[in-house]
Write a structure and sequence with these properties.
By secondary structure, the protein is of the alpha+beta class. 48% of the residues lie in helices and 13% in strands. It starts with a helix and ends with a helix.
């Protein structure tokens, strides 16, 4: 019931932001000092300079500031689309409480970055809202978006938690269950952020692939310093899915390419099997090998001891 009320409340809040009080005027809910920074359209969608937009709250996308993970190509493609077709979906902003005439982004960071790239204003809905309302709006927008990867959702949940919100508020904002939150937390608990940043969003990789990495860190199979060096050696031209594929191959080599076990017959009833994991000697307790089987069982400790002494 609480989640439904919050969703309804945020829907009303966003709808209110889209209502124009008149052509050419900024929305009346904006503080006075922000009006000069806004150019309003007849639909109530404002046009705002990217330079007047500040970051706010938990980050939902990795590398939104054009790091090695969020490639220039990704933002450039969006920028080209906006250049040709215009910005079809507005972003959601709120007036900054710290800097007069500035705005804080609730959602739509990548669209803002694309508009900045091609030097055009950003189409935005501007609404005065507190941190709680802003968080729910951001969460609802994320929950309806299909292009946010599993790992980005996990990092978004962690970012919300680190800002002091409770699990109940977090689940409400993201519209997820306690079980889903547990799955997201499992990933970020064991995988260091800098390792996740070096791999990237990996949109084609779901929970199971990230859990392989998480379990390896949890079990102590991976050393952070060594893994960072490995990931930093990957070509810069690789996207995050290629990085993930390469890292999983390192983590769990393709068994089909491993050395196949060999087996050879030593004598009748006696065989030796060898593979990359070890050597197995098989001696049947019947027929001509029965006597040898008994002798081997009685003397195996002495044989091993002699061999170790000789090797040392």
């Amino acid at each position: 019931m609480a989640l439904k009320q919050n969703k309804d409340g945020m829907a009303a809040a966003i709808a209110a932001a889209a209502q124009a009080s008149g052509a050419g005027r900024a929305h009346p809910s904006l503080p006075k000092g922000t009006i000069g920074a806004v150019r309003a359209g007849v639909t109530g969608i404002q046009e705002i300079s990217p330079e007047d937009i500040l970051p706010w709250g938990p980050q939902d996308r990795l590398g939104v500031e054009l790091t090695a993970v969020n490639s220039h190509e990704t933002v450039q493609e969006l920028a080209e689309t906006i250049k040709i077709n215009g910005q079809q979906v507005p972003v959601l902003l709120r007036p900054s409480q710290e800097q007069d005439g500035k705005f804080e982004v609730i959602y739509g960071r990548r669209r803002i970055l694309a508009c900045r790239t091609i030097g055009v204003t950003v189409k935005a809905l501007v609404r005065t809202m507190d941190d709680g309302q802003a968080l729910i709006a951001k969460g609802l927008e994320n929950s309806s978006r299909e292009d946010l990867s599993f790992y980005e959702r996990a990092r978004f949940a962690k970012a919300i938690s680190e800002q002091g919100y409770s699990n109940e508020e977090l689940m409400q904002a993201l519209a997820i269950s306690k079980n889903t939150l547990s799955q997201l937390n499992r990933i970020t608990k064991h995988i260091p952020d800098d390792i996740g940043d070096l791999i990237g969003a990996a949109p084609k990789s779901g929970r199971s692939r990230w859990e392989l990495i998480s379990d390896a860190f949890r079990d102590g199979s991976l050393i952070v310093k060594d893994i960072k060096e490995l990931l930093e050696e990957y070509p810069e031209s690789w996207d995050s899915d290629m990085r993930m594929d390469a890292f999983l191959l390192f983590l769990k080599p393709d068994k089909s390419k491993s050395e196949k076990p060999t087996e050879r017959r030593i004598a009748k009833g006696v065989s030796l099997k060898s593979d990359e994991r070890g050597i197995t000697i098989s001696v049947k307790r019947a027929g001509g090998s029965a006597t040898f089987a008994t002798w081997l069982e009685e003397n195996i400790e002495e044989l091993v001891s002699r061999a170790n002494d000789k090797a040392s």
